[in-house]
Amino acid sequence: MLDEFWLDEENKLLKDQYENKNNYYIHEVGKSNICYIFCSSNGIYYPNTTETFLKTIVEKDRYEWWNISNSDEILESAGKIIYVRDVYKQYYVKGINGSIDSIEKLCEFLKELGNGMQIRTCGISSGGYLAVILGVYLQAECVFDFGGQWSLYESLREAKEDNQLEKSYCFLHRYRNVEKYSRFYDITGLMKNNKIPIMYFYSALNEEDKIQTRLLEEAEPSNVYCFAMKSSEHGYTLFNNCYKNVLSCPVQKLIQIHSKYKNNIISLRKICFHFMNASGATWECINDVIRCHKSLQRVVRLFRKN
Predict the structure, then answer these.
(1) How far is residue 277's CA from residue 293's CA, in Å, rounded to a whole number?
(2) How far apart are alpha carbons 12 and 243 in whole angstroms?
(3) Is the pTM of this model over 0.90?
(4) What is the mean pLDDT of residues 293-305?
(5) CA angle 2-127-183, nearest 5°?
(6) Is the dihedral of CA 32, 239, 62, 83 positive or negative?
(7) Residues with Cβ < 8 Å from 273, sequence gap 6 or more?
(8) Per residue in 66-99, is it b (16+ CB within 10 Å) or e — as a string?
(9) Angle, in degrees to the nearest 10, between helices 153-161 and 207-218
(10) pLDDT digits 0-9 by tens, 91-121
């Protein structure tokens, strides 16, 4: 049976990590004037148990995007790489630590670190939500948002229906009427008069993503380039080996690719040919076909045994 691991101030392990650790990491690369900021999501550790938290955060000191950001493609194009995480897994409503305890303070902190550099922010789901906020505040060159939320009120509603408010969204629920925090609960307003290019990849067959995308469309943004990916899994919008090429891609090329697929649902297999060489993209497609068919998986396992 899983132990009770509530995401609130009574959890001593979480409180210690939040108050006494940085929960950010800086990699000085020095190859260019580009600063990548990678925002971890609420999936930074899972499930919510003491064992998982100790192993993932305390022992391994995990940040999402670590492997992708350490690829040759990113390292060759980066001057600095910054990673941030929210150990409370509540959309960064309490920032990242005891000193940087709000999204506003996190924006100010990262502005100092990236001063004078071209900023690229990136994240999946709640990480994508934060990437948008940071990108607008820091006047980023580009934002990469993979299935990020545009309104947290929908997440609160779902948590209430599942009786998860106090256990999983304690702070998000508590601060919903406190302007200092709740001003970021709906970020569609940030799109008004904003020219920062936001590359928004979302799962077009996922109900949660469809709801969030409708909220975005109501704001009628001109700077958000929506890539409607043919996927039903929240956060699964590209093959893993595509991300490093997408993140290091020139903004103008991304806009050109978007114009090719605008208003269409995009195959993950097809789009990877825009970001990978023919050989690499072909192998990704073959692997995806195998992943989608259990009979082929059995054949591959049998072949490997022999």
Answers:
(1) 25
(2) 36
(3) yes
(4) 44
(5) 105
(6) positive
(7) 281
(8) bebbeeebbbebbbbbbbbbbbbbbbbbbbbbee
(9) 150
(10) 999 999 999 999 999 999 999 999 999 999 9
